[in-house]
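Exercise: predict the structure of this protein bound to zinc ion.
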Amino acid sequence: MRSKFFLVATALALVAMPARAEPPSSIDAASQALVENAKVKAALETVKADDAAAFTEQKRITEIAAPPYKEKVRAEYYLKRMQELGFKDASIDSEGNVIGLRKGTGGGHPKLVVAAHLDTVFPEGTDLTVNEKDSTVVAPGIGDDARGLVALLAIVKAMNANGITTVGDIMFVGDVGDEELGNLRGMKALFRDHTDIDGFISIDGLGIDRVVNQGTGSHRYEMIFKGPGGHSFQEFGLPSAIHAMGRAIAKIAELQTPSDPKTTFTVGTVSGGTSVNAIAAEARMAVDMRSNSIEELLKLEARLLDLVKQAVAEENARWKTDKLTVEIKLIGDRPAGLVAADSPIVQAAQKSVAAVASGLKVELAGSSTDSNQPMSLGIPAVTIGGGGEGGNWHSRNEWFKPTDAYLGPQRALLAILMLQGLDGVTKPTLAVRPAPK
Ligand SMILES: [Zn+2]
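Solution:
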């Protein structure tokens, strides 16, 4: 039970999160000074002026395939774009993440990662042609996360064009493995290889009115029921893999879980059997469990796995045998985590919105994103939108409309500056984490 152990360790890490070394200077004061600064104003204008070019880039990126584990072509394109933006040392790491480091004047800290994911959910061979009708575009992955990828480039462009130097370092990352099958492999590698990261912002999703500060954890299993199998009439009396699975599903369907913290489960797919007149030798199901709380996720998991074993025991008992078995395979493992609403990173993500679109209400939300990984390690992290509107996520009919899309990178830029400090103008508000022992 590798994952279970990991999650318990994670829970302890969260509880033991170190106290901040120095009280950070106020986000409000930083915000005020930044919006009045001429360079910052000019940078926000650059972002707005770049809106149409960014949209064109978004469509171009969308048409470069990036299925799970096969992000390489898109990664190479993204690397080239980063190099063109001045990241001479940008590179692709061992897992496939594209990384460009923009140094500040503070000697390396605080270090903030700003990331968008390269991968899509769409398999190889999917038609990625961007269809444009009126002002709406339809294409798989056009918003998720091509929008985040271009928002990131727009931020760098505007910083460069206006001579913006931060105090803290910023690591810009186009990462792999965010979507389901990837299991956050890009993030797991990034935080394994760089133990000095103080904060993390993922640009994923659209609009600017949502700040994800809760990482919804998930555990997914494939369960394979196996029995002897045989003729439905001649060999009647043998246990059935399908009957055992049916017993298990009936029990799972009755589980009760809390609505707060939101905790959910479903048997997502089933398959099995060979013909109508055969006692099934094999049956499989895939089960998804999610929660905003590690404890609730583990509780649910323990109960559900127990019910599956009970179902197998009952099917064996029914036919006085022990021939029926179940193999339980963990196929998905995303850690859960939570960042306090009053932490500088959540505050910066919220207050930056007011600076570009006053009066807009921002909600805190839970979701499963790249931020889950740093959150589970106790590193302050949020996921914010890249601007614009859209829908039909993870479907071939995914759509995007560039309504006020520039607000995405504008807001992200302000949040970054609030956290990392503008050289000579504001101090960083993101706390430097103690070096790992
Ligand atoms: Zn995404």
